[in-house]
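Researcher: I'd like a candidate sequence for this fold, 255 residues long. If you have to choose between options at a position, lean toward the conservative one.
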């Protein structure tokens, strides 16, 4: 479970309120690093920051958080969380998405954004925020460094997200859904296509981890700005180390 991060004053009158979903169970892909990167980039700008964990059985207030984060977990833990999401948190997350709160789901969390995840004979429920379904592939796991090209509202031109993927599931998007990006190197959602992730408004799912945000600090800033609101103006930061981390992740993927 992440160390507690306490709210602090904001010079700019902004505060980023994060709800970490199942931080004790869905946290095997450096998910704590993603939360810490969000906290640091807010702190460096004197933007208030608070994290509220929500575990099994906990209800959530869709109005109380600006960004909801759901990471990846082992199959057993993912099944437990899937049932809790469907039975306890589904309506609140739909309400949060309807008011344009940011929902970021990585790996196993990405799979649970859709309708179902079929694990052999067992069908695990999703929360249906986007039109997708996942099946456990019969072949080898899709593992390796990956880079994708993305186009996001508010940013000029294409950008590159780089990271690492490790998933046995094959995720298929419905005909009306938009992928997060186009695969430049790596396997992507199914290993047979050229798309990765999903994005519907401020709901984002991806298989990229390792962790995702420290390797792509520009993407963390995009999420922060989307979560805080349209009037957020994030001052630039001296990002030499962040740029180096991103460049290294791109090189590892062959970009």
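Model: Candidate sequence:
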């Amino acid at each position: 479970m992440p160390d507690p991060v306490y709210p602090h004053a904001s010079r700019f009158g902004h505060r980023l309120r994060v709800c970490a979903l199942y931080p004790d169970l869905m946290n095997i892909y450096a998910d704590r690093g993603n939360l810490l990167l969000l906290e640091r980039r807010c702190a460096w700008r004197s933007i208030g920051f608070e994290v509220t964990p929500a575990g099994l059985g906990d209800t959530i207030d869709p109005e109380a958080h600006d960004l909801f984060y759901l990471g990846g977990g082992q199959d057993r833990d993912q099944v437990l969380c899937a049932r809790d999401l469907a039975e306890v948190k589904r309506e609140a997350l739909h309400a949060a998405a309807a008011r344009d709160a940011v929902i970021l789901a990585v790996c196993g969390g990405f799979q649970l954004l859709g309708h179902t995840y079929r694990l052999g004979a067992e069908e695990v429920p999703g929360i249906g925020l986007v039109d997708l379904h996942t099946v456990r592939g019969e072949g080898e796991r899709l593992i390796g460094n990956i880079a994708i090209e993305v186009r996001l509202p508010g940013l000029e031109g294409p950008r590159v997200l780089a990271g690492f993927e490790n998933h046995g599931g094959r995720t298929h998007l419905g005909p009306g859904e938009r992928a997060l990006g186009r695969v430049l190197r790596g396997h992507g959602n199914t290993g047979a296509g050229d798309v990765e992730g999903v994005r519907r408004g401020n709901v984002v799912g991806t298989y990229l981890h390792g962790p995702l945000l420290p390797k792509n600090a520009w993407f963390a800033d995009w999420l922060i700005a989307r979560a805080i609101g349209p009037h957020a103006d994030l001052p630039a930061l001296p990002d030499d180390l962040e740029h180096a981390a991103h460049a290294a992740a791109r090189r590892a993927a062959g970009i």
